[in-house]
Amino acid sequence: MAKPIIFCDFDGTVTQSDNIIAIMKKFAPPEWLELKDQILSRKISINEGVGKLFSLLSSDLKDDITKFAIENAKIRPGFKEFVDFARVKSIPLYIVSGGIDFFVQPILAEYAPFDGIYCNESDFSGETIEILWPHKCDSLCDNDCGCCKPSIIRQLNCGEDSFKIVIGDSVTDLEAAKHADFVLARDLLQEKCEEWGINHQGFQTFFDCIDEINKRIEVGELSC
Ligand SMILES: [Mg+2]
Ligand SMILES: [Zn+2]
């Protein structure tokens, strides 16, 4: 029987909407819109696009941006219950995020501990905000992901009997979804899973995610 292991996105998944988009809407000059379109249409890589987006912002804004991101973030219903569910069932739960440490870490703090939190990092020591990429693509990914979810999945080396569940919503989850045994998807990710014939189910809340995983445990498809 397969052992479930969960890789959960952060922006637009744990939170109801994308924190980077919210930050840009609030603080960035209008050029950010074109960069956003280029990222979403995959004309430029996530790494390049997100780096350029944050370079539009002055490092002096650090405190304002951090405060705004934390206050603005709405957690998707059922997340707390979902984290408890994974803990009770001893299902490893990793947060893999294309978001940035200065808002990902404080927002997740009250739900900790996780088996791991992977996200990008930030440097406010220069004139504008610089994004650091501690989880770049390995030699098997040429997608220039920024925070490379498939590389993280490979690095964790889950084992032959693992059943990899990817939860996500958008462009940063596409490569991870291709490596998943099952995807819980919203929004753009859901459309792409349909288009590419990836084994998936849509969801609205984390209660839906609990139900979908529980179903598979009950029929004996998964053991934990
Ligand atoms: Mg997302
Ligand atoms: Zn990659």
UniProtKB/TrEMBL annotation:
<dbReference type="InterPro" id="IPR023214">
    <property type="entry name" value="HAD_sf"/>
</dbReference>
<dbReference type="InterPro" id="IPR036412">
    <property type="entry name" value="HAD-like_sf"/>
</dbReference>
<dbReference type="InterPro" id="IPR017718">
    <property type="entry name" value="HAD-SF_hydro_IB_MtnX"/>
</dbReference>
<dbReference type="Pfam" id="PF12710">
    <property type="entry name" value="HAD"/>
</dbReference>
<comment type="function">
    <text>Dephosphorylates 2-hydroxy-3-keto-5-methylthiopentenyl-1-phosphate (HK-MTPenyl-1-P) yielding 1,2-dihydroxy-3-keto-5-methylthiopentene (DHK-MTPene).</text>
</comment>
<dbReference type="InterPro" id="IPR006384">
    <property type="entry name" value="HAD_hydro_PyrdxlP_Pase-like"/>
</dbReference>
<dbReference type="InterPro" id="IPR050849">
    <property type="entry name" value="HAD-like_hydrolase_phosphatase"/>
</dbReference>
<dbReference type="GO" id="GO:0019509">
    <property type="term" value="P:L-methionine salvage from methylthioadenosine"/>
</dbReference>
<dbReference type="GO" id="GO:0043716">
    <property type="term" value="F:2-hydroxy-3-keto-5-methylthiopentenyl-1-phosphate phosphatase activity"/>
</dbReference>
<comment type="similarity">
    <text>Belongs to the HAD-like hydrolase superfamily. MtnX family.</text>
</comment>
<keyword id="KW-0028">Amino-acid biosynthesis</keyword>
<keyword id="KW-0486">Methionine biosynthesis</keyword>
<protein>
    <recommendedName>
        <fullName>2-hydroxy-3-keto-5-methylthiopentenyl-1-phosphate phosphatase</fullName>
        <ecNumber>3.1.3.87</ecNumber>
    </recommendedName>
</protein>
<keyword id="KW-0378">Hydrolase</keyword>
<comment type="pathway">
    <text>Amino-acid biosynthesis; L-methionine biosynthesis via salvage pathway; L-methionine from S-methyl-5-thio-alpha-D-ribose 1-phosphate: step 4/6.</text>
</comment>
